[in-house]
Amino acid sequence: MKKQLVMISLSSLLALSACVTSEESGSDSSENKENKDEASANDSSSEEDTKTETAEMAAEETSERFEKLHKTMATFSLPEKGRLSSKEAKLRFGEILRPEDEYKDVIVYDNSMIFYKNTKETYTYSWINYDTLSQEDKPEPYGTQALGALKYRVNHDMVFYPSIFEENAGTPLKNLDEYKGDKKTLIASGELVEKEGKNPTGYEAIEAGSQRMLSQLHQLEPYVEQFDAVHDWTTETIYYFEEAESYDEEEWKEAYKYYKKGVDNIDEMEKAING
Fold it and tell me: Which residues form the signal peptide (predicted)?
């Protein structure tokens, strides 16, 4: 009888132990699942936080650079050194300057650089055919003259960059995945159609636009080294257009990415100048 009681008691204990173990196991499994879900949520949250932080840092850096560019381009003064009197200017540049200017609205320098007084931009006819001049005849900007030259080039030439879709020069560019309708279909097809017109479109817009911007920037780059923010901007923009130009027509999507970055920099500088 005692053996039976002992056996029954032992069986009961084993059953109870099994129940407890099962409950603990179920509890552990549930707890592990909760921990995994929590860890996954934390990872996702951490990833989102990182993306947000990166975006905020990029925006902060862009804002900081813009402020530096704006301060440099909007507040500079042209050099006092080397200015010619009205009489000297008339004798030397009478065939270039328009009579209506009367040499009062412009500043003429002994290195052949001419600027509008009110805008501090290079004069309309100054630096014409620069690339065709011999080295000894090329005017060499000094000091803030380079900023006035850049200001004119950006406002009256570089902002009118070609677009892959639009004949109208200076049409703001979008990321490829932001285009809609026929343009989206065209992008998906992988081919660009070049339209006949005044301004290049398609891949030709990227190629011709990059070459034109590089010609302007390479001409000015040596003279802006002393202006840190402007020099950094110039170096970066040159890099983007050189990369864009390095891709063949079959790789136009890669070329476009860099072309757009270069164009975005042009737009940034235009706003820094006039904002």
Answer: 1-17
Query: Angle 136-214-189 (CA atoms, 0-180°, nearest 5)?
Result: 155
Q: What's the burial of 96, exposed, middle or buried (CB within 10 Å: 0-12/13-18/19+)?
A: middle
In sequence order, what are the beta bridge partners of 122?
115
Cβ-Cβ contacts under 8 Å for 250 (sequence gap 6 or more)? none
DSSP readout, 225-260?
TTSHHHHHHHHHHHHHHHHHHTS-GGGHHHHHHHHH
When computed from its CA atoms, the radius of gyration of the chain, rounded to whole angstroms, is: 33
- For the segment 8-45, what is each residue's pLDDT rounded down to a tens digit? 443 443 343 444 444 444 555 555 555 555 555 555 55
The CA distance from 176 to 183, in Å, is 9
The domain limits of the chain are 141-274
pTM of the model: 0.74
Segments of the chain with pLDDT less than 50: 1-25, 55, 128-129
Give the rounded percent of residues in the chain with a pLDDT score beyond 70.
67
